[in-house]
Amino acid sequence: MDVRYEYRRYQALGNDYIVVGEDMTELLSEPARIRRLCDRHIGLGSDGILLPTAPPDGFAAAVRILNPDGSEAEKSGNGVRIFAKHCFDHLGTSPAQPLRIHTLGGAVSARLIVRERDRSVLSVTMGRASFRCEDLPMSAPGEWLQKDLECGGRVFPITAVSMGNPHAVIIGNAPGAALDEETVRSFGPHIENHPIFPQRTNVQFVRVVDREAVEAMIWERGAGWTLSSGSSACAVVAACVRAGLTDRNVEVRMPGGELRVTIGGDWQVEQVGWVQELMTGVIARELLASLAV
Q: What string of DSSP letters covers 79-130?
């Protein structure tokens, strides 16, 4: 009997993920297979794969977040919104109450706000932002707040933030200065792989618009240039609030769209944004054969 693997593709602010079933756990145990499936030319194409897993006690669901380079992420803001929509729409999970999801980066809780004709809007509590270097981890003591870091022949003022995964936020405050995609693409990899980050890091370049809005471009650990990132947006607002540059309820404008982020007084972070289901599919036999399945 032929093996049949089904999947669904979603996008959230231009950040696209494939959601699969637990039956693909063994198949996805090899990083090379993950890389092939995520490849946009010779695979299915995606910014990552969301793999459900058995939830621990106290959780209604659990998900593993697999990056297109074959590594595994601790947390993803867009990813958990997508996974929550998948649970609400296709796995029989009731949206009448928040869905508590286990991730490697800690617990998150997702709530369906509204189902629109072409998408769903969800809120996710993402856990507490931390500025302690050891929480990223980062090979430095204490906190790293707008301190210079030399990378690729340039010096960048970085604020290090953990959202259960590591972030290096670069806030540029020059009046009228625009974000530059070429700079993000050129220096993002250098910062991601800087030795001070033993598990690498996500990188965000930020421009503060006003007290209630910021712009951000993102180099995502394990994925590279991306149109948006939920956990990155959370880290960006946390860094801006800590620096006194914005209020605690902020719109983060990214190339893929806008995300609303709120920072609580105890540094608990909530994000609100939309998710859209794009397609369903079955992995063809020839692709499976090329994966040596």
A: HHHHHHHHHHHHS---TTSPEEEEETTEEEEEEEEEE-SS-EEEEEEEEE-B
The reply to whether 114 and 35 lie within a common domain is yes
pLDDT in tens, 90-145: 999 999 999 999 999 999 999 999 999 999 999 999 999 999 999 999 999 999 99
Provide the pLDDT confidence category of residue 172 given band limits of 50, 70 and 90. confident
Q: How far is CA 120 from the centre of its chain?
A: 18
What pTM was computed for the model?
A: 0.96
pLDDT reported for residue 3: 84
Domain coverage including residue 48: 6-128+276-290
CATH number of the domain encompassing residue 183:
3.10.310.10
Q: Measured between alpha carbons, how far is residue 73 from residues 96, 140, 160, 288 in Å?
A: 29, 22, 17, 24
Q: Please report which helix (H) or strand (E) contains residue 27, including its range.
A: none
Closest CA to 226 of 209, 203, 242: 203
Nearest to 161 by CA among 178, 172, 147: 147
Do 200 and 108 belong to one domain? no
Specify if 243 maps to a domain.
yes
* 15-43 exposure pattern, b = at least 16 Cβ within 10 A, e = fewer: bbbbbbeeebeebbeeeebbbbbbeeeeb
Whole-angstrom Cα distance, residue 2 to residue 123?
39
Please provide the DSSP assignment of 191-205 as one string. HHT-TT-TT--EEEE
Mean pLDDT of the chain: 96
From 273, 257, 262, 256, select the one nearest 236 (Cα to Cα). Answer: 262
Number of folded domains that form the chain: 2
Residue 31 pLDDT more than 60?
Answer: yes
**Residue 235 · residue 259 · CB < 8 Å:** no
Q: Residue 100's Cα: distance from chain center in Å? A: 17
